[in-house]
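check these C-alpha cells.
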Amino acid sequence: MTKNEGMVKGLVIGLLAGGAVGAILALLYAPKSGKELRADIRERADEFRDDAEEYVHTMRSKAGEIVSEAKQRSDTLITDAKRKAGTLLQDAEKVLTDARQKSGTVAEEGARVKNAVKAGMDAFKEERRRS
C-alpha cells in the first residue's frame, strides 16, 4: 500500500468514526425522551454500520482491482523478460557462431602462412646449400 493510499484510508476511517461520535453526542445532548433517544441512536448506528459496510465493500473491490492489475503487469513483465532473454540467447549464439567461423578462418590462414614461411625457409636453405 502506498503512502497516499494509507492516508486516504486513515482519512475515511477518521471521517466515519468522527461522524458516528458526533451523531451520538448530538443525540445525547438533544432534549428528547429516553425512548426517542434510543430510537435515534439505533437509527444512527444502523446508518453508521451501513456506511462502514459500504466502505469495506468498496475497499475490497479496489483491492481486487489492484491485485488483478498487479498480476497482469507481472505477467507482462515476465513475458517481456522471456522474450528479451530469448533474443539475447539468439544474439549470443550468433556471436559465438561468427567467432567460431572467424577463428576457423584465422586458423586456416595461420596454417597457410606457416606453410608458406616453412616453404620459403626450405627454399632459402636449398638455395644457400647450392651456392
